[in-house]
Amino acid sequence: MRWDGQALQATTPDALPGLAKISNLIRSVQTPEFAGVTFHEVAAKSALNRVPAGGPVPFAWTINPYRGCSHACVYCFARPSHAYLDLDAGKDFDSQVIVKVNVAEALRRDLAKPSWAAEHVALGTNTDPYQRAEGRYRLMPGVIAALAEANTPFSILTKGTLLRRDLPVLTEAARSVDVQLAMSIAIFDDSLQSTMEPGTPTTAARLATVGAAVSAGFQVSVFMMPILPFLTDGEDHLDAALGMIKAAGATGVTYSSLHLRPGVKEWFARWLNTYRPDLTPRYRTLYGDGAYAPKEYRGHLASIIKPLIAAHGLDIAPTDPGTGSAVAVASKPSSHRASARDSNGEWRDKGRSMSAAQLTSAASTLF
Ligand code: SF4
Description:
alpha/beta, TIM Barrel, 8-stranded mixed sheet, 4-stranded mixed sheet, 31% helix, 14% strand, binds iron/sulfur cluster
């Protein structure tokens, strides 16, 4: 076991109430290297997740080596997914991380099935595969190798600079399958980034990772998601951001304004009231009744950013006029990699979808 030889505190499977639901929990681990974070190591039965049919994304399968994410982005779309273990979408999402320690082995079993048709597989669609824990668990090299050996094309979306570690194995994989890489960089203000995305590598480090991937021969797109009203949507900020993205060597940009679904909205409201209470009334106007910024705001944002993207010579992914989200495109070039989220800004999972009444009810109590 990778954590052997370190000072560990292993706990029993019932350390947290919801963890009793995990029949395949191996142990729960804390280490000084990751202060405040508990890793719950599980043995996954399978690695491939089927995406419900009919969605806007151009792939049918995903892999998530981790659930929960120590990158701790305040606006993270995936926060509500943690509720399945009776863990909360706030601090628990950041600090109680499920680790599928055998994900590569489970994946090889999945890929060996005669029914596997080598469809595109997306990584980073729910939680980040290159979050800090990956530096110790090193799950991704095995995942990448397994996909390549099974002639299975794949894409990776991440905020993690650990991607750079795996460029050699990704380069090797790209000799036999299509490999698409995308870096998520939404905030180009270091002070704001440090409170809004406290567990992530800096923007400069992520841009440098884009450059390293480009130097390794990959086309890399940047996800500017979410763009935060009144915080990162100014023309000067966007212009400077796109200039840095272009200078790093990226070929395309995908953008979307902020979505605030229940489970995310509460966490975001707490941040807003702590750091920028002056903006609370303006956010109440935009998001008081729902999860999306109004169509008028999205149109305003598009009128600013689209000319800037073109002026910087970057490609752009199309967006859904109903939500402002990037939508799927059929073409394969990585510069047009589509949104990994659904039109609600979250991974498509019919079992977790909420009714309009639920959305309105939850939303109306905030800000
Ligand atoms: S890196 Fe992605 S998955 Fe992780 S907290 Fe941030 S938005 Fe969520």
